[in-house]
Automatic annotation (TrEMBL):
Keywords: Transferase. Coiled coil: none annotated. The gene is larE. The active site is at residue 171. Signal peptide: none annotated. It comes from the Bacteria. GO terms for molecular function: sulfurtransferase activity. This is ATP-dependent sacrificial sulfur transferase LarE.
């Protein structure tokens, strides 16, 4: 059997599943495969809506869920102290809080098993939230069947799932230095700045915050476009930044983790 068939075999064992859903490549793939394997009435996606996600991502996730039975769970990660002060292990505490609530919602709807979209590649990088999910008994069928990110994209394309080429995203808190106090307003600054870039057709982007400096990470082929776009630079400044800089290394995932590793 190939990995998709192995995934379907595992899903059949659970019969009824709730899925921690974000609308990203992994959770949307898992959602579609679960629906195809178990049927719509046996799958409950739970979308956690809060300040850690942009409105754009939330709207995209809701659009993907049209026609499905789903629950929107409103959460406030700023209530979690480790998140609010952006500690290095914030993801562990935030995920523990949010996924505990997802488990409660699942139980209220008579769904015994809660699944997440962790893939095999996630096990190779710094992901403190994974430990929280393991402690809570969250099941990761994509990782269990050794599905990598690229394989999930390939299967998604094969199955006609529209998110097959969606750029990876991350919690908005990841744009700030560790041990920086976060507020709703600061998270919104990042959200709005990245939305300006998205509106110009640049989706693989990060706006990192260093005090009053906005450091833009984009694909190298977009450098000149950014430099020449004076109106964009001013709009980002108007959000509350004194300087807007361009990272010459381009887009990086886990950027602050990379920097901490260099300095350790």
């Amino acid at each position: 059997m190939n990995k998709l068939e192995l995934l379907q075999t595992e899903l059949r064992k659970y019969e009824n599943v709730a899925i921690a859903y974000s609308g990203g490549v992994d959770s949307n793939f898992l959602f579609h495969v679960a629906i195809d394997t178990l049927g719509k009435d046996h799958v409950l996606p739970v979308l956690c809506r809060g300040a850690m996600m942009s409105k754009e991502d939330i709207e995209g996730a809701l659009e993907q869920l049209q026609g499905a039975n789903y629950v929107v769970l409103d959460v406030n990660p700023l209530d979690v102290e480790a998140f609010r002060f952006n500690h290095k292990d914030r993801c562990y505490h935030c995920k523990k809080s949010i996924m505990s609530k997802v488990k409660v919602v699942a139980k209220e709807h008579n769904f015994e098993y809660v699944l997440d979209g962790k893939n095999k590649d996630d096990e190779k990088v710094y992901r403190p939230g994974l430990k929280a999910c393991e402690e809570l008994g969250i099941i990761s069928p994509l990782a269990n069947n050794e599905l990598t990110k690229q394989e999930i994209r390939d299967y998604s394309k094969q199955l006609g799932i529209s998110t097959y080429n969606k750029p990876s995203n991350a919690c908005l808190a990841s744009r700030f230095d560790y041990n920086t106090e976060l507020t709703f307003e600061k998270l919104q600054m990042v959200e709005k700045g990245e939305k300006y870039l998205h509106d110009l057709g640049m989706f693989h982007v990060r706006l990192r915050v260093h005090g009053d400096v906005a450091r833009l990470e984009v694909e190298p082929q977009e450098f000149k476009r950014i430099i020449d776009h004076k109106e964009l630079i001013q709009k980002i400044k108007d959000l509350g930044f004194r300087f807007v800089t361009l990272d010459l290394e381009g887009i990086k995932h886990g950027g602050y983790d990379v920097e901490n590793k260099r300095n350790s």
